[in-house]
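Dear colleagues,

As part of the handover before I leave the project, I'm documenting each prediction I ran so the next person doesn't have to rerun anything. This entry is a single chain, and its sequence is reproduced below.
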Amino acid sequence: MTKVFIQTHGCTANLVETQSMMGLLQEASFKIVDDPEYADVNIINICTVKGNNVALKSIKDIVTHYPDKKLIVTGCITQDIIKPIRNLHEDTSLINTHNIHRIVDAVEESLQGNFLEALTQERINKVILPKIKTNNVIGIIPIASGCADNCAYCSVKQIKGDIFSYPEEFIINEIKKALKSGCKEIWLTSQDNGSYGLDKGERKLHLLLQKILDEIPGDYKLRLGMTNPRHIIEITDNLIEIFQDDRMFKFIHLPAESGNNEILGKMNRKYTVHQYRELVDKLRRYVKDITIASDLIVGFPGETELQFQDSLHLIQETKPDVLNVARFSPRPNTLAKKMEGQISSDEKKERSQAMADLYLGIASKKNKEWIGWEGELIIDEKSKDQTFIGRNFAYKPITVKGNLKLGDVVQVKIKDASAHDLTGEIIKEISLKK
């Protein structure tokens, strides 16, 4: 039996595409292995949204250690990375994110000594592809592909294309299948969940969420992935009402990207700092203990020291529970790459460190407020030495020790906290998996 290894980089959308490719390969009687040494064909599912370097390093590592094995590169493949990949391994098959349904063809062609290029932009309903879950507790369900925006610094639109929302009935059916297989958490993913439905003329995220909750009863948690703030401003009240359902994780990812309106305008983000603040304030006011994650970019072209200080002020005002700090890096064929006023690497490094230090102080203080809390959590991740991580209703990561398994539900009391997670002690075992 032919053995295939798959390595994955990037976001949850990439992860679920790997699961789909594994499902297709298994249906075609290939065996999935967890070590490239034992594989006949190695597949690397790359992410280039933050640049090509990580992807190329991963490819180089595989080629260096296993030069005689067949290689397929899938995922976020842009035109500018094709030549560097070919320089590393001339006979690599290339399957972009729009053509993952052709992975079996790519493997079969590779085994015959040929290579396949599938780099066109096709619209397929990826939600219905078979999947092999890498975590049996978590069902990752794609709701759309592509993007409705065109941010000046981002290459997602080039890679993923325009927004393509998957039909509600297929999403609901996949959720039912995931829950039937034993999943306790459902993660809805896409490049921008908030733009769901815009290809049909209206924002329909709230309608999708309500339909899921209405049509799928049961004891599970639903997690909403990243959304551009501009897409939920007009449906905030609807989302607040939906968040009152106990099955919703009280969590939302709202990238701010900058705390200065001029920089937001250059980024083509299409909302203001005031609108972002109002959105966060409203969610915090009406959704008790909601966890809000955000992203901020430092060193965008032309960003002055005062404009950077505006971003620091936004952190102080909104106090994000989770913050991803990114140093601006020019992406090929983006507007920002051509902009004047590029910031030096040293300056970006200093600014990102200052921002991270500010955030860590805020996050540590906020997490300490959870000490003494008691409640339920779902064990969804295994660490080391009988250490597990579970999530409570606010999607807070809580580390516990015990003789546990993924999917167990326990009651804990928070004993300690850091900027990144909480430490709990089990006080009651509620539901243990056999």
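The longest strand covers residues 422-431. DSSP finds twelve helices and 19 strands in the chain.

All the best with the project,
I.
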